[in-house]
Fold:
Amino acid sequence: MPKIVALLAFRNEENYLPGFFAHLRNYVSEFIVLDDNSTDRSLEIALSQPCTTTITRKSEESHPDHFFEVDNRRALLEEALTHGADWVLCCDADERYEMLFLEQLSSITSHRRVAYALRCRDLWDSKDHYRVDGVWRGKAKFVLFPAIPFTDYYPSQVLHTRWPPPGIPCRRKDILDFNIYHLLSLRREDRVARLQKFKAIDPDCRYQPKIGYDYLIDETNIAVQQIAPEHRFQLLAEDAHLLI
Structure:
């Protein structure tokens, strides 16, 4: 059976981390996580998890969220190689994979060694519905790929890069018919906070010039879709306080 290692970089994610670990625990061999200067209980939660290696980044000078995003990902991928990972599964603390994907994870990784993407679904005012209009219609994220030694990676302090190193092709034909659900989009106040965060980090939309960030709260011609039973994600006790 392939050794699948879950990777995560986090900062002040105490509300989401228990559910992150719980929903993946039965499907991966181990976790490698990186705490990027958290000031809440995030590091304490990570350190209490079984089968988990925790890396810490401590900086005397303050820096904005995502400032070390690329560096953190590189560090996690390099650590996964030292742990003998065959595959890596990448996730954000506020994302949850659908059950069918997790149940088929071993089978998927037993065949072609390519980078796989899943559809990103932003939950919207309901745990059972996600947004499907505009930019939400075709969003996908490459989250599962073989652990292969690499030298080239992306420049530091660049936003919105992919997880797989540049040498691993990311092809549309390898987008699987499974979903990742984004919990942070569930409540309007969290969507507004996310918009404000990215506008502070990237005020000139340098890293997202085509669409900017206002779409995160724009509800013009909004369309939502109910999660089909076969695409459900597991509702965990650890996430009960997050769900509407």
In short: The first helix runs from residue 17 to 24. The mean pLDDT is 94. Strands lie at 4-10, 30-36, 52-57, 87-90, 95-97, 116-122, 129-131, 140-146, 175-182, 224-226.
